[in-house]
C-alpha cells in the first residue's frame, strides 16, 4: 500500500475515535448570553403567537361598546390575568428588541464577541426596563 494512503486511513480512524456525546444533557449545556437571548426570542415569538386569540378576544370586546369594555375590565381585574398580560408585554418587548438586534447582526453590526455580548445584555436590560415602566403604568 502506498504510504500516503496508509496515513490517510490512520487519520480517518483517529477522527472516528473521538469521544462524542451520545445523548445531550440540556441542563448541563452552558449557552453564552447571545444564545440565551436567541432562544428567548423564539420562545417569546411562540408565546405571542399562541396568545394571539386571547389578545384578539380582549381587543374585540373592548371595541364592542361599554358593556364589552366592562367585561374586559372585569376579566383583567384578576391578578393571574394581569400577570399573564405582563408576561405578554415582556414577550412583545423582548421579541421587538431582539429582532432589532438580529437585524443589526444581518448587516454585520456587532458580530464580534464583546459587541455580541453587549447587544445581548442591552436586549435583556431594555426589554425588562420597558416592561417594568409600562407594566407599572398600566397595572
Distance between the termini: 79 Å
Low-confidence stretches: none
Q: How much of the residues is beta strand, in percent?
A: under 5%
Rounded average pLDDT = 90
Quick one: overall form?
elongated
What is the CATH topology assignment?
3 helical TM bundles of succinate and fumarate reductases
CATH class label: Mainly Alpha
The helical percent reads over 70%
Radius of gyration from the CA trace? 24 Å
SSE pattern, N- to C-terminal: HHHHHH
Description:
This protein is mostly helical. It has a single domain (35-138), classed as Up-down Bundle (3 helical TM bundles of succinate and fumarate reductases). The chain has helices spanning 3-16, 33-50, 52-62, 66-76, 79-106, 113-138.
Topology:
Elements (H helix, E strand, L loop, with lengths): L2 H14 L16 H18 L1 H11 L3 H11 L2 H28 L6 H26 L1
Brief synopsis:
Helices cover 78% and strands 0% of the residues. The protein is an all-alpha fold and 139 residues long. The protein has a single domain, classed as Fumarate reductase/succinate dehydrogenase, transmembrane subunit (3 helical TM bundles of succinate and fumarate reductases).
List the keywords.
mainly alpha; 78% helix; 3 helical TM bundles of succinate and fumarate reductases; 139 residues; 6 helices; 0% strand
